[in-house]
Amino acid sequence: MRAAYTGAKIPATPALRQKHRAAVFAILDAAERVILRDGYGGATLDNIATEAKLSKGGLMHYFRSKREIIDGVLDRLRDRLADERDSVPQNGNPADPARASLISILNLVRAGCPALTGLVAMLGENEIRARLANARARLFGEIGSDAPHPEKIAIAMLLLEGLWLDNSIGRSAFCQDVGSRVVNELTRLLESL
Length: 193
Known about the structure:
Elements: H1 14-42, H2 45-51, H3 56-62, H4 66-87, H5 96-111, H6 114-122, H7 126-141, H8 150-169, H9 176-192
Helix pairs in contact: 1-2, 1-4, 1-6, 2-3, 4-5, 5-8, 5-9, 6-8, 8-9
């Protein structure tokens, strides 16, 4: 686990740390489900606690506020993206960091990552929108002027954002066959960078 995901004190013994981690992950999983089902506004501490099969007090032992839970969901998503990105082979090409980031997002979109899908439900929140804009700016910042074909990377980013949105709202503009071909074409474009 890259981040603690919570402000709660982490236990000292390995067995208790593992139990703590399992409880935190169960709460974050529950929060993702509630956000997907009820939207950001419906993701109250009570609803998340109910979904996690905890009392509100039990939930607050790990997270003191909805903001902490949302931060945990976003931190865990960032960690999943970083793990995915780290697994993408590098070719020594200046475009490698941006290509790896885009491939990691594509892999999570394909897998139907609930936190990534849930981001759509949170885009109405200014702070979440600003965080996403900053992450997007960092990604575009990885596309240095020395990277070959920065326009292809930008096109891939825009296609990927469209695919993410299309998957997130659950109403694809494409039939399954065309959607699969779009994903395959995007994969080829990313691999060619």
